Amino acid sequence: MIIPEIIKRPSERYTVGMKYLAPDLEEGATILSSTVAITPTETSGLAVWGSPSIDGNVVEQGIQAGLDGHNYYVTFTTRTSEDNIFEDSVYVKVRSK
Predict the structure, then answer these.
(1) Quick one: which of 59, 62, 61 has its CA closest to 85?
(2) Which CATH number fits domain 5-94: 2.170.130.10, 2.60.300.12, 3.10.150.10, 2.60.40.10?
(3) The whole model's pTM is what?
(4) Number of separate helices (H) and strands (E) present in the chain
(5) d(C-alpha 74, C-alpha 49), whole Å
(6) Cβ atoms < 10 Å from Cβ of 69
(7) Sheet holding 46-55: strands in order across?
(8) What is the pLDDT along the chain (97 residues), one digit of tens a residue?
């Protein structure tokens, strides 16, 4: 499994997401829910902004802040109408330069 990696500045705030395609999201299946967790959990660390949004086969979550020089995993746990549960992550490196 390849984990997507992004670099963000501590001052930036934007959404990251996952797009589910066949064969994971079967024809006719829908995404029912998704939760997002950030690890590690730190005071003033990377944080979610708002709630996850689902639009068709895409799940997005706003992220903000983060400590310069620190790295985080944004993990999506997504459930489909076929009762599948997927756990996917984005690796976020926070760098001021």
Answers:
(1) 59
(2) 2.60.40.10
(3) 0.92
(4) 0, 7
(5) 12
(6) 10
(7) 13-19, 58-65, 46-55
(8) 689 999 999 999 999 999 999 888 888 999 999 999 999 988 889 999 999 999 999 999 999 999 999 999 999 999 999 999 999 999 999 999 8
